Amino acid sequence: MRLKEISSEVFKSDEAIIRVSRREIEFLKDRVSSAPRGRVRLCAHASNEDLLHEMIIVLTQQTYIRPHKHVQKSESFHIIEGTVDVVVLDDDGKVLDVIELGELASGRQFFYRISQPIFHTLIIRSPILVVHETTNGPFNRADAIFAPWSPEEHDPTAKQYLRDLETIVASRVKRSRL
User: Fold this and answer.
1) 43-75 CB burial, b ≥16 within 10 A, e <16
2) What are the pLDDT digits (tens) for 92-111?
3) Number of structural domains in the chain
4) Backbone phi, then psi, for 115, in 5-degree steps?
């Protein structure tokens, strides 16, 4: 499959049938190391106006996904490679739930779907995470509501926020396993 570069983070194919193999995954994994935000994606949908968006996304462990929620949208992840904790938060930033996801062989859950407008973020546990994400379109950047108590993506405090969240999640997960 021939991939067309839309930006340093986004690739597409104009083929009528999108097929993804280890080759495309390795290509994306190779490209993520030079991506400014530590993420790249292969969009399987034709345009931002499509009603269904499917993407293969590769993220590095250092990637910060600002806590956000979607109004009138669903989102699902199917983990292809790696491990991640999806952290679900209330409107004040308190951790409500931690969904431990991993590839099928990891023994963790490998799929989740969220269909309510609830804040969530990711703590990537493996050096690289590869996910198949599905959401409804059309894409409008304004549809994502970012948590006002969380730092913006390029804010210098974002890394510390993520470290603090990791500490909270680690103690919560440890307690739930006792």
Assistant:
1) bbbeeeeeeebbbbbbbbeebbbbbbbbeebeb
2) 999 999 999 999 999 999 99
3) 1
4) -125, 10
Q: Report the pLDDT value the prediction gives residue 174, as an integer from 0 to 100.
A: 59
Would the pTM count as exceeding 0.90? Answer: yes
Residues shown for the chain:
178
Q: Residue 13 maps to which CATH number?
A: 2.60.120.10
Which residues 6+ apart lie within 8 Å of 129 measured at CB? 58, 59, 60, 61, 79, 81, 82, 83, 84, 122
| Domain span including residue 116 | 4-177
3-state secondary structure of 48: coil
Instruction: Please give the torsion angle defined by the CA atoms of residues 109, 59, 30 and 13, in that order, rounded to the nearest 10 degrees.
Output: 90
